[in-house]
Amino acid sequence: MKPPKAIEDGRYIQVSFTGKPSELKPYIQDAENHAKVIITKGKADHVSIKPYEDVKTKYRKYLSAILPEEWIEVTNTFNNMYQYKVALSNENIKRAVDREVSNQMNNQMFLGLEQDTSQLSSDKVLSNDENKALQKKYLGYYSYKELKRPFNADYTFYIFKFDYSYSMFTVAGMAVSPEQTRVIYFLHTTQ
Length: 191
Fold this sequence. Notes:
Elements: E1 5-9, E2 12-18, H1 21-34, E3 37-40, E4 48-49, E5 61-62, H2 63-66, E6 70-78, H3 82-103, H4 128-139, E7 144-150, E8 156-165, E9 168-176, E10 182-190
């Protein structure tokens, strides 16, 4: 089983992990035992909820509107540090030029060095090892590429809790891929 990856973004918290269906079966069974609602993403378009029983109908929301629309896959590929590397080297050139200019200010010497902006292309990609080394050196942590993936209609959602406060719906639950090889726990808030 792959280790869990956690993503937090203001109104959304996600922890996901993958494994064989037999490895994930205990998580799915536990979710079945504790869920208030079990529904596929495709059927969530036809189910509406109210924040409270005695609330007017205009405050109803379709379940699909408060469930997360996408999940985030964290890859094993390091984020590209090429532009950061170029910016650092250009900053070092600028410092060297500034030093040289200040040293020779009395001579009124002009240096015709320009920053090479052609290197700032985002198309250039460093190797994973180069990115790892630069991240460790300059960031102090590793930053991996994240890909947003939509939940398709066949994902099953196990909803543990709904909450409504200050015109915001919050839902806590778990989503399971159709193949039952990915489990995504989430806390999602929406208006």
